[in-house]
Amino acid sequence: MPTLKALVLGCSLKSSPAPSSSELLGREVLAALADHDVDGEFVRVADHDVRFGVSTDEGDGDAWPSIRSKVLAAQILVIATPIWMGQPSSITKMILERLDAELSETDDQGRPSMSGKVAVVAVVGNEDGAHHVAAEVFQALNDVGFTVPAAGSTYWVGEAMQTLDYHDAGPKPDTTGAATATLAANAAHLAHLLAATRYPAG
Hints:
Layout lengths: L3 E7 L10 H14 L3 E7 L19 H10 L2 E9 L2 E2 L1 H10 L18 E8 L4 H14 L9 E5 L8 H4 L6 H21 L6
Parallel strand pairs: 1-2, 1-3, 3-5, 5-6
Antiparallel strand pairs: 3-4
């Protein structure tokens, strides 16, 4: 079975080296994927000068083209986002807007550029909304060609109106950890199938 690639886009509002619960959960997804012949890389988007826009390259030093090349090279994309006011982070939304450009990008057989790639989501927060956030992100990614596996999200949500973060909460092997393991197994299984048998040309 060939080794696949995964890319985690960490959508924390904080730049490195600030602690990030979404980065922690994203890296836990990578560790779980490694058990299924998937190599991975983590990119914290806030560390890069990604411009607002809906094209593949907004010019003037835009960092998105280099990140996009990593997305294109990966078979699995992981969006790791915090919840803010019940919503995905603004960086997550910016990434989805940049991926909107893929609607007009196709391969030599007319398939969308992201066709055959698998997308999963990791969510953290101190308020309700993990299912809503996953739904928003999945819908956008599916629109541009990504395939969503069964049980394709993992999350941790702390008590509302409190300040405890996931990176301070300690391991959650029977809840978040179990969801992460299932996500990884299903995502890797689907990605291997799609790598072996592409969707039909448009």
